[in-house]
Amino acid sequence: MTHDPRSSAFAQLSALDVKRYLLGTGWERASGRRVDVGIFRRPGSDDAEVVLPLSLDFTDVPEAMARAVAEIARVEQRPVAQVLRDLRRPRSDVLRFAVESRDTADGGIGLDEGLALLSGSKKALLAAACSVKRPQPFHPRMTLREAEAFVRSCRLGQTEHGSFVATIECELDVDDTAPALPTLAEEAPVPFGRKATTLLLASVARVVDAIRADDASGLLEPPPGAPVVSANLCEALVEMMPLQDDGGLRIGSSWSPLLAPPRAVPGMVRIEGTYRSALEGVVRALRPAASPTPDLYVGKVDALQGEVGPDGRMQGEVVLAVQVEDAVVKMRFDLDPAEYVVAA
Q1: Each residue of 249-273: pLDDT tens digit?
Q2: Which residue among 39, 75, 202, 289 is least packed, with the fewest CB closer than 10 Å?
Q3: Measured CA distances, 33 to 14, 37, 339 (Å)
C-alpha cells in the first residue's frame, strides 16, 4: 500500500478556509437539512458539486476533503496539488511565474535562467508595490518602506509542473475571522498586498494589449483610471523572458479566499517570446533621459572631510545625508572655501 504524502495535508485543511474559498470564487451553498455538512454548487454548471464536512466528528474527514479538493481542481481545470497549496495558504495571493520554452518542457530550467526568473519576479513585485504608493513611469530608487516590507513578507513556494513554474506567496494583512461573503469583503479596506498583486497583473495585461495593438506609445500617457506601467516592471519582464522566441512568460494568480477577487483583472497573462524587442522599446520610452535634471533635495551635513587649501581656508569633501523618497542617501561633494564655510 502506497502512502500519498498529501493525505496529511488534506487532514490539516480548515473547512472554514475551504468554505471561504468556494464562496469567494463563485460557488453557492445549497440549502440542506444538516448543518454539519455543506453542499456547494457552481452556478451555470449541472454537475459541479462539493460536499464539505463542517464537523470534525466525521471519521472520514481527510477523504472527504480530498474529494472536495479534487472536484474544485476538476472545475477549475488545475492540478490538485496546486489547489491544495492555495487552500493551505488562505491569507495569501499566490503568484505563478512560468517560463515556457523548449528548454523547460521537461519541468527543469537552466541555472542562469532560473535565477533570472526569481530575480525578475522579485523586481516585478517591488515595482508594482512602488507604483501602488507612487504611480509614475519610472522609479529611480525602489526603496519605499511599505513596498520593501511587502516584498520581504512574501514567501517562495515549491516549484510546480507545467514548463518551469516559480510560485510566490504574497501574504495579505487580512482579518481571517471575518465572514466569507464577497459583498462584505468588498466593503472592507483593501490590503496593500492585494493592491500590489492586482496592479501587477493589470499592468502586465495592459502592456500585452498595447504591444498586440501596435500602440506601445499609449503606455506613455495612460487614460484616467488605467493601471500604471513603469519601466521597472517592464525591465523585470524582459529579465524573466526565455531566450527562445517560440516560448513565452506566463504570469497568473490565485486570489486569497478571504477577499473578494478583483474585478476586471485577468487571472493569467501570457507574454509571447516575440514581444521581447517591443518590451525593450517600452523600457527605453518610459525611462527618463540619461542627462541629469535639476531637483531639490533636503538633507544635513553628515561629515566634513576637507583640508586646508593654498589660501589657508578649509575646502574639499563634504558628505551630506539626503532624503530621497523613503531612503537616506549619502552624497559626496567637493566644495570650494565659500561653500565649505556654509557646510560647516
Answers
A1: 999 998 887 888 888 899 899 999 9
A2: 289
A3: 22, 9, 84
